[in-house]
Amino acid sequence: MVSFKMLVLILTLFLLGGAGASLIKLNGNGYEDVVIAIDPNVPEDEKLIQHIQDMVTEASTYLYGATEKRFYFKAVSILIPETWQKKNEYEEPKLETYKKADIVIEVPNPPGFDVPRTDQFGQCGDKGERIRLTPAIVLGEKLNEYGPQGKILVHEWAHLRWGVFEEYNEEEPFYQHDGRNVPWVIVHMVYACSGGSCSIRNCRTDPKTGKLNKDCMFIPDKVQSEKASIMFMQSIDSVSIWIISL
To answer: Which residues form the signal peptide (predicted)?
Structure first.
């Protein structure tokens, strides 16, 4: 059994120089030398540092369970802008730099665009470049949209480390099967909305093609029992695993 007290979070001040290769290594079952950087354009907020620490701790437990006790976060460094107030517990960085950061907390661009994302330019199975989160995500201000911070981080970690793609289609949310429009739900046990809790919005069927209009939205019920999949909708409370074990 892994003790999550082994998770080490190091707070360091940083400049913008340095080369850009990731420092991540896997030591036993634990990921070490993971670098999280707060972008210098983010306004100083001491709560943000604590929430980053909480997010990583939560993600470590979640990752450990989702990978059937294979992986967890063991040592993570948080790079704090040099312009922020200095504290005694902050250390000088060693090899960590902003350019080597695996996860960046940055101001949303455009404003209000808080979608968690990972720079991913290769094929399925190719590692991603960098995870990008906003302060609103880390501070838990987008729980209804994206779920808990730790689950968001694990979702993006799968993009970053294993090159996993999303299991939904934003451009074509429905496909046709036996003459019916069916949402791209990776597991049939994730049910659609029912009762008055939510609805399928703005939906019209094209009489020529039989397809639904692009503005039609599928909104799954938040109350589920299905555990998969993290890459479809990690915001659902019951979701805790991938379709295929890693």
So the answer is: 1-21
- pLDDT for res 27: 93
Structure token pair of residue 210: 């039989």
98 within 8 A of 37, measured Cβ to Cβ? yes
For residue 150 the two structure tokens come to 């730790």
5 in helix, strand or coil? helix
Residue 117 Cα distances to 133, 154, 207, 240, angstroms: 7, 12, 36, 19
Pairing label, strands 30-32, 25-27: antiparallel
SS3 of 245, please? coil
Question: What are the residue ranges of helices labelled H in 147-227?
Answer: 149-162
Residue length, the chain? 246
Q: Whole-model pTM?
A: 0.74
Residue 30: strand pairing partners:
27, 72
What average pLDDT does range 145-160 have in this prediction? Answer: 90
Q: Which domains does the chain have, with CATH numbers?
A: 4-162 (3.40.390), 168-228 (no CATH)
Query: For residue 29, what pLDDT is reported?
Result: 92
DSSP label at 99?
G
Distance CA 147, CA 156 (A): 13
Catalytic residue check, 156? yes
* Catalytic entry in 156, 170, 171, 172: 156
End-to-end CA distance of the chain: 19
Using alpha carbons, list the distances in angstroms from residue 113 to 4, 51, 107, 137, 224.
33, 20, 9, 11, 28
